[in-house]
Here is the input.
Amino acid sequence: MTHHVILGAGPAGVIAAETIRKHAPQDTITLVGDEAEPPYSRMAIPYLLMGNIDEAGTYLRKTPSHFANLRINQLLAQAVSVDVAIKSVALNSGGCLNYDRLLIATGSRPARPPISGIDSDGVHPCWTLDDARKIMALARPGARVLQMGAGFIGCIIMEALKQRGVQLSVVEMGDRMVPRMMGLTAGGMIRDWCEKQGVQVFTGTRVEAIAPGAPLKVRLSSGQTVDADLVISATGVQPHIGFLENSGITCLQGVLTDEHLQTSVPGVYAAGDCAEAFDKISGTTIVSAIQPNAAEQARVAALNMVGQRVELRGVTQINVLDTLGLISTSFGNWQGVPGSEQVELTEHQAGGGQGRHLSLQFKDDVLVGCNSVGWTEHVGVMRGLVEGGIHLGPWKDKLKQDPTRLVQAYLASAQAQGMWHGAGDGQRR
Ligand SMILES: Cc1cc2nc3c(=O)[nH]c(=O)nc-3n(C[C@H](O)[C@H](O)[C@H](O)COP(=O)(O)OP(=O)(O)OC[C@H]3O[C@@H](n4cnc5c(N)ncnc54)[C@H](O)[C@@H]3O)c2cc1C
Here is the structure.
């Protein structure tokens, strides 16, 4: 009987365990997680902060006996090292766990910027349920909250913080908001929108030091000092893979895998935020720390772990972001690739409106990436064109003249290539 050990009980670990059980009813499955709570979704944390759900609402599976019913053994422990020669995982409890197949699904963890005072009381990341509890205790109506970082996660939690009635300031060292997802115009529009919603935004600015106390005194590179009752550190995440050092499992930015999610060591797989998976579409390996990837990679890894030969189609590089009600998107190579051509359309809205922006990047007659702000109707189509690598033929020039004709371009080109499966779906099959 094969023993599957899964390290990490987040979405990737849970989906892998369930998939293995479905396809290998007799195998033994052990799911190791180092957080005390039942497996939960970090994506639900903003809703918890808003008060829309309670903690139980974040749990991935609602029936307490779910894992026992599936004969998935749960173990509260932290993996501290892996010995691939004897197929054994050492745990922080001092014990060891032997495996036949191993899945590394340990996710990512918040980057810790090297700032003096970062460990002060009242400074927290927003990554775990435990962080959320600490934030909720301090983010009371009227509290002064300073958020370091205006990336993907930073923008997502702003809405929740605003709804808690805090006075919010955001400090981003990049020259615009969401700099790793959005170009200058799009990032600038998001900033303008946030300011209209009453958020104080500092871009091109670093937090240099945090002096402990009540309030915390946050010194910025602009020379200003901002008082804060709570500082939230949202300065990015990195794969949680330090325990694999010296294991012989190849890690670059994340745990390197092939298209079957197998690592450099046969029988050892990786999935989710911690994985640097091979993307067949671009021909490169990519860490893309979003939940749809965690779910799909876990499913594919699990199928391979039970002996099926299944390939990952691609690593999704998609971000649809809701920043205080303003929807923006970023698909594929939104910055372009060598030799690509670009078209941009920007409509600035006077007064309190949102404005709209589209930026499309073409390589030959393929849309290789795009950014949008304020367009919601094109999301499925943009994804379909970029992920499908659909040849636009004459539609490329038409789009360069009028980028808003994306839906027509998609229908005409995808249909011609037999890739159309219904308007608004936009997924390659
Ligand atoms: C506030 C917030 C909002 C988000 N919103 C979105 C969103 O809107 N859309 C989206 O796509 N994504 C979103 N994400 C990101 C999404 O949550 C992650 O992509 C997803 O959780 C990845 O799943 P995972 O299973 O790979 O990792 P994780 O969910 O991080 O789970 C990994 C688990 O492994 C545990 N672990 C780590 N090391 C060890 C070890 N050595 N031994 C045992 N256990 C270990 C961790 O503690 C954790 O419990 C959000 C994240 C946050 C924090």
About this structure: The longest helix spans residues 291-305. The mean pLDDT is 93. Residues 7-13, 32-35, 42-43, 45-46, 78-79, 105-108, 126-127, 153, 156-157, 240, 243, 272-273, 289-292, 294 surround flavin-adenine dinucleotide (CB under 6 Å). The chain has three domains: 3-109+238-305, 123-235, 325-416.
